[in-house]
Amino acid sequence: MSAKIEQLVAMRLNTYFKHQPDTAALAELKTELSADLNEAANDKAASGLEPEEAVAGAFSDFGDINALIKQINEENGTAEHVHGHQVIVDDNGIEIDDGKTLKINADGLSINNGTIKADANGLKVGNWILDEHGLQNQAETDFDDERRSQQRGQSQQQEQSQRPGETSQPETDADQEQSTTDDAATDESNQHVTANLDDVYRERHPLVNEQRVSLTGLAHIAINYRAATVKVLPTREAGDDVIIRDYMNYNNPAYYSQVTTFEDRLEIVQGKVPFLIPLRVHVQILIPASYAGQLTLSDRSGNVIMGNLQHLSELQLQVVSGSARLVAVGMTTFTSEVTSGSLTMADVQVAEQLVLNVKSGRARLLDVAAGNYNVRVTSGSVSGQQVRGGGQWTAKSGSIKLALAAINGDTTLAAHSGSIKVSTPTDASYRYELESQSGRVTAPHFAQVDHHADGYQAGRVGTTATYLISGRARSGSISLR
Predict the structure, then answer these.
(1) Residue 47 CB-density burial (10 A; 0-12 exposed, 13-18 middle, 19+ buried)
(2) What pLDDT is stored for residue 90 in this prediction?
(3) Can you give the pTM of this predicted structure?
(4) Domain boundaries, the chain
């Protein structure tokens, strides 16, 4: 670190904070800005710039610091303590001790909870008011006002007694508008997910950095972000480069994606995440559509969008407290873990194994096919429409609701304390075996029943009945339609 750069950064920052209140939030912000800007300026100096130019460039790249300070004040308040008093200075005026000691704003001035008050109506000191009518005692004025108010109230009661049958409106316009909005709301499960992802290439934040890595020789791309919107899409350019584009509201090289390669592995990791600066990061990772290697993607608290990549050998996805959307993606194997987040898969083809583990989250499958499913839900939910393939579906304490488009494999359903509902095509043919210890089991009413006992049913639907659907429930329920 250059002492000269450190001094120049401190001098510039002081001009931004000179007239700001002395709050803990702003003190933390100033410290964080100082570290980030020093780092950015030293990087520029290392490329050959003079300290003055490097510092000016770092501040210019970063963005509007005044707007950032304003946002921090709005989010954390501008209160400071002066000699035991709390002072707030903002666009609304000045307050000391929440306005009890002193309050100055567009309405006027108030001291000591209004003991002394000056506004457009005049000057008030104690019970005395000085206005255009002269000097008056407030106690006498209040008595006269109260008497006149009582007289008006008696007159209104007499008028109302002469108009019986009038009722107040049962619902306001706002209530009616809210009711209309509620009635118009649609269930998320019915929303259509399209494979047209043209819009996701456009960003509202400025592009601050772009990096390129040749795809040649790469067999594994690993992506890891903590708090960002990550979009993994096919590149629209000719060539075999993987393109990493950072879009963000504050520009600092420390925040850029960190890209490294090791033999046949490309690692893309989120840069520094500031503690107090409200950084918004959108990242586009553009991969040639021909890529047929392994892809690992983890995003802890952001959003993930992946689409139109059809030749992946393996996809591993981890979502924590965020959301992920896969559209028109094809792969040999797929493994995903969703914790307190959500996953939507639409038009997804998995040639072999699909493994999905949902913990306190939600997964939605629309037109998904897999050679074999291994889905486990704990305190969450999985719903599926147009699902193809057999395998294992387990609900420990959550729920699974499936609409199968085809039965082309044995399917095992297990419900511990959750519930499982499965519907099959009208022309489907299969065998079934359902058993429950203390839960409810429902079999198709048009099935041919082979065995029926307390808590147990077995039979067949159709004539060919190649595959078996088996269900076991402890204290949950299984419904097969």
Answers:
(1) exposed
(2) 58
(3) 0.67
(4) 3-77, 93-139, 196-291, 310-481
